[in-house]
């Protein structure tokens, strides 16, 4: 077990710093302070991060940490920590690791015994979820669906019976195809499409998939899909022998058939008429 007390650590630390997803005013004071104090900043795209750092007048050593070099870069970040240097990992927008690089670095650093500290900030999935008008919990954050039609449809079929509100990220050039697949596989559910979150053209499209699909064809910008979960209740598998055995036990204790059925229905969480049907079948 590795027990971490984030504010008591004396050794070098890896910080996961959430960056603005569009509106620079949402960059927290703590996040800015951490970036000012660390020795190295590992960025998904150093050019984008440099613009952010310049805006806040932050000058630090900047290294690339992206999907194509993630494993090797993780080892490099560990070496900085071993030298006693604090490191911050940032993505282009939002939290590192959430559909962005950083997981390999976290695993490598934790395995070596160093602390990993998250620095709160904007998150597109949470913004979209709480403003969607759909039930906020329980929810399932899925990230990006596969881009291939066959693979994406397989994923959607696997999610079809999930009762949770689902959150997907999607690119504008794939939104029509993705929503069409959702309509065909999930049915015409309620959903919300959030785009350009925190930016000047922020927009929420709420309605049935079929309605949003038509409107989304002309939409641009980064998108978040919030999808209603399956509302159909699964029928519980009922073992007649177990039910009738329990009814018989209560009958032997002196309960009437009506009271025995009522009690069994409550214990098993099923309707009384269902228990009654099994009881009739037993004695018919």
UniProtKB/TrEMBL annotation:
Gene Ontology biological process: methylation
One GO MF term attached to the UniProt entry: methyltransferase activity
UniProt cross-references to InterPro entries, sorted A to Z: 4pyrrol_Mease, 4pyrrol_Methylase_sf, 4pyrrole_Mease_sub1, 4pyrrole_Mease_sub2, rRNA_ssu_MeTfrase_I, RsmI_HTH, SAM_MeTrfase_RsmI_CS
Keyword rRNA processing: yes
Keyword NAD appears in the UniProt entry: no
Listed SUPFAM superfamilies: Tetrapyrrole methylase
Keyword line: Cytoplasm, Methyltransferase, rRNA processing, S-adenosyl-L-methionine, Transferase
Record-listed E.C. numbers: 2.1.1.198
Gene3D superfamilies documented for this protein: Cobalt-precorrin-4 Transmethylase, Domain 1 (3.40.1010.10), Methyltransferase, Cobalt-precorrin-4 Transmethylase, Domain 2 (3.30.950.10)
UniProt cross-references to CDD domains, sorted A to Z: RsmI
HAMAP family registered for this protein in UniProt: 16SrRNA_methyltr_I (MF_01877)
Protein family membership: Belongs to the methyltransferase superfamily. RsmI family.
The protein's name in its UniProt record: Ribosomal RNA small subunit methyltransferase I
Gene name of this polypeptide: rsmI
């Amino acid at each position: 077990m590795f027990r971490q007390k984030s504010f008591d650590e004396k050794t070098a630390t890896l910080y996961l710093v959430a960056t603005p997803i569009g509106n620079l005013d949402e960059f927290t004071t703590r996040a800015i302070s951490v970036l000012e104090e660390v020795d190295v900043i590992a960025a998904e795209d150093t050019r984008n991060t440099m613009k952010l750092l310049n805006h806040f007048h932050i000058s630090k050593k900047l290294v690339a940490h992206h999907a194509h070099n993630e494993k090797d870069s993780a080892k490099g970040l560990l070496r900085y920590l071993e030298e006693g240097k604090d490191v911050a990992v940032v993505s282009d927008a939002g939290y590192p690791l959430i559909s962005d690089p950083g997981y390999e670095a976290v695993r490598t650093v934790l395995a070596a015994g160093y602390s990993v500290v998250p620095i709160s900030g904007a998150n597109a999935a949470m913004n979209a979820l709480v403003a969607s008008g759909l039930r906020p919990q329980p929810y399932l954050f899925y990230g990006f669906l596969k881009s291939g039609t066959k693979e994406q449809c397989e994923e959607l079929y696997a999610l079809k019976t999930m009762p949770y509100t689902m959150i997907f990220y999607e690119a504008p050039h794939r939104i029509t195809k993705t929503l069409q697949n959702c309509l065909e596989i999930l049915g015409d559910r309620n959903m919300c499409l959030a785009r350009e979150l925190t930016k000047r053209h922020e927009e929420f499209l709420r309605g049935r998939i079929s309605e949003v699909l038509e409107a989304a064809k002309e939409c641009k910008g980064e998108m978040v899909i919030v999808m209603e979960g399956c509302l159909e209740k699964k029928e519980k598998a009922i073992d007649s022998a177990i039910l009738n055995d329990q009814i018989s036990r209560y009958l032997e204790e002196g309960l009437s058939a009506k009271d025995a059925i009522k009690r069994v229905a409550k214990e098993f969480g099923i309707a009384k008429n269902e228990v009654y049907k099994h009881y009739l079948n037993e004695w018919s």
